[in-house]
Amino acid sequence: MMKLIDTHVHLGVSKFSGVATTETDIIDAMKKYNVETSLVMPQPTLEDIEEVHRRIARFSAAYPGKIYGMAAIDPWLDEERFDSQAQECFEQHHFVAIKLHPMGHNISPLSPRCDQIYAAARKYKVPVIVHTGIGNPFSLPSLMIEPARRFPDVPIILAHAGFAVYTDEAVVAAKACENIYLEPSWCPTYTIKKMVDHIGAERMMLGSDHISNLPIEILKLQTIGITEQQMEQILYSTPKQLFHIS
Q: Which structural domain range is residue 75 located in?
């Protein structure tokens, strides 16, 4: 059976949907759908983010090699607090990515405040995952072109790849910048096939966003007519290399 890494998993309670996901929910879904590794981040939430980060760190420690953490640090924090949280997440907890949620953080990716996120990604050699699609104008995929060009050594992953409505724009952004990758959760099948055709499977990865969505995202990839090699690249090889998963 083909190995599978889910690159977009949330722990906690979403302030937008009210969806609550626990450690048990995640592990049960991984067993049911043969997921080898999940990359877990906080929800956009009203919970204490620092405590959610520590909860994810404990989760990762309990399931080494199966659970990896990702940070979601508020770019509105002052430099000292931001750096302190980044240091804890990456030096103590060994998280593998940092999240920017333009809608959840209520900020444009072009704001100078977001440079803290891009600079932290560069410092700790991790990718930036950026929510795109819902929550415009801040969530437009094209807004990541300028940061991607200023930080060409930082991999930037467009979560949801435009979220169905802006998928073409996500493809354009990825074609404009070689360090932009696409995670197409919630996108229609024909647009996912377009992504494979235009930017290649080596710059794509699977993400569920909500664990109940996981079987649907897997099924979409199985039905769009890509090769077994392309499937393996999206499900496993790309994220394994990008997130330095051992």
A: 5-242
